[in-house]
Amino acid sequence: MKTKYIAALVILASAASSAFATGALSDRASDIDRIVQGHGKPGDTAVATSNPAVSFEVLPDGRVRRVNATYGTSTILDPAYEALRLRRGR
C-alpha cells in the first residue's frame, strides 16, 4: 500500500514540476500563465482580467513583479526558483 502512495506522489510531483518553464506551454495559455511560468521575455507585461488592478511584468533578470494597485503592494516571483522548489518537493 505504501508503494502505491509513493508512486502516486512521484507522478504528481513530476507533473507539477513540468508546469514551470520546464516543458512546452499550451498555445491557449494566457499571457499571465506564460509570464508566471517563466516563458515570458524581459519587458513582457499582462493585466489580470479578473482584477485589472493586478499586473505582472517580467524584469530584466527573469523574475516577475506582481503589482496590486488597489492595495499598493508589489511582489517579486522567481519562476526558476519555483520550478526547482517543485522538483525537490518543497
Biggest β-sheet, characterized? Answer: 4 strands, antiparallel
Q: Number of helical runs?
A: 3
- Alpha carbon gyration radius: 15 Å
End-to-end Cα distance: 23 Å
Helical proportion, percent range: 25-40%
Can you tell me the residue ranges where pLDDT is under 50 for at least 5 consecutive residues?
A: 12-20
H/E series, N to C?
A: HHEEEEH
Shape: globular
SSE class: alpha+beta
Total number of domains: 1
**In percent terms, what proportion of residues is strand?**
15-25%
Rounded mean pLDDT score: 79
Give the beta-strand count. 4
Spatial strand sequence of the major β-sheet: 1-2-3-4
Description:
- The structure is a single chain.
- The chain has about 90 residues and is an alpha+beta fold.
- It has one domain (about 1-90).
- It is about 35% helix and about 20% strand.
- The protein is built from three helices and four strands, in the order H-H-E-E-E-E-H.
- The chain has helices spanning about 1-15, 30-35, 80-90; strands at about 45, 55-60, 65-70, 75.
- It has a four-stranded antiparallel beta sheet.
- Strand 2 (about 55-60) and strand 3 (about 65-70) form a beta hairpin.
- Helix 1 (about 1-15) packs antiparallel against helix 3 (about 80-90).
- It is globular, with a radius of gyration of 15 Å.
- The model is unreliable at about 10-20 (pLDDT under 50).
